[in-house]
Amino acid sequence: MIPTMGTRPDELVAAVRSVSAQRPSSNVGKVIVVLDDPSFSTAELSALLEGLSVDVAVIRSTDGLSARQSGVLAARSDWIAFLDDDDLWEPQKLEEQMRLAENTAGKVTVVACRVSHEMAGAIDASHSIPRRLMDPRNSVAGYLFRRRPPTRRRPSLFTSTLLVPRALCLEVPWRKIPRHQDWDWLVRADARPDVVVVQSPRVLVRIRVGSPGSISRSPDWRSSLEWAEETLAAFADRRIVADFLASQSLRYAASARSATGVRSVLGALFAGRRMPSLPALLVGLAGLLPTALIKRILRRG
Fold first, then answer.
1. Distance from C-alpha of 188 to C-alpha of 172, rounded to nearest angstrom
2. Which of 3, 79, 101, 76 has its CA nearest to residue 45?
């Protein structure tokens, strides 16, 4: 399932082609492209994707629902794989993940994998991300946010890597929130005792970093702070929340050069009575650096 605003047509076509290239092709059912921009025509998008060697259905997102949940409701298969419109799957992605899912009988399994990053048009395949895979006995929130290091290979669970049971998405819906939609779903799903998250050690997805219009590039500290206080705190201990506030919300406030944002995040940290770890704090302070400098540092590891 691919959500799109329709503003990256070339990338969208490439994403759908990477789905059609899956081996074996029997692993691919219908590709559902969910248009999340009312100003763009579904007919125009369908014409753009016509002729590709895979069954594609273009739908419009339902009012009040996230694009991903709209796609979940339109799907009919038992498993749903998510892909952002600027990312690409490797040909063996679904085959490898279905094999892992079959080896976790008795559990509701969410399957992810390692990725490669494409920055400024150059794929760095020499570094698989993340360096450390998640221990299924630990929580998603702890894996992602506790002592979050300031490195490119930090713990990660990208939406474009996820293969999940459709039934789980019906019971734990993807919410329409302004930020952290993927982490929000993972943290809430992981709270169920019968859910296990596993990662393939292989690089099965190519993530394009810094695409124009990406939500992750927006320094929206308010939405991040609200999510931490209203949702993350309900599923994670205060040390994890403190590290999230330092590494994410504080970084957005610093990037926006918002004194109000910095004070608000520091106030939340003080109210939580937990000091963030040094690695998480370093990630937050990186928001003061120019984006071009951060990219140069990340390329050098």
1. 7
2. 3
The answer to whether 190 touches 140, Cβ cutoff 8 Å, is yes
Q: In this structure, what token pair is assigned to residue 118? A: 């494409």
Q: Which tokens belong to 79?
A: 């498993």
Q: What share of the chain in percent tops pLDDT 90?
A: 73
Q: Provide the sign of the torsion angle of the four alpha carbons 134, 140, 142, 147, taken in this order.
A: positive
- What is the C-alpha to C-alpha distance for residues 72 and 170, in angstroms, rounded to an integer? 8
Structure tokens at 201: 């050690």
Structure tokens belonging to residue 223: 């939405």
- The model's pTM: 0.90
**Do the Cβ atoms of 36 and 3 come closer than 8 Å?**
yes
Q: Could you report the per-residue pLDDT of 266-282, keeping only the tens digit for each?
A: 999 999 989 999 999 99
Residues 233-290 have pLDDT tens digits of 999 999 999 999 999 999 999 999 999 999 999 999 999 989 999 999 999 988 775 5
DSSP assignment of the chain equals -EEE-SS-HHHHHHHHHHHHT-SSGGG--PEEEEE--TTS-HHHHHHHHTT-SS-EEEEEPPTTS-HHHHHHHH--SSEEE---TT-EE-TTHHHHHHHHHHTSTTSEEEEEEEEEEEETTEEEEEEEE-SSPPPTTS-HHHHHHTT--SSTTS----GGG-EEEHHHHHHSPPP--SS-HHHHHHHHHHTSTTEEEEEEEEEEEEEETT-TT-GGGS--HHHHHHHIIIIIHHHS-HHHHHHHIIIIIHHHHHHTT-HHHHHHHHHHHHHHT-PPPHHHHHHHHGGGS-HHHHHHHHHT-
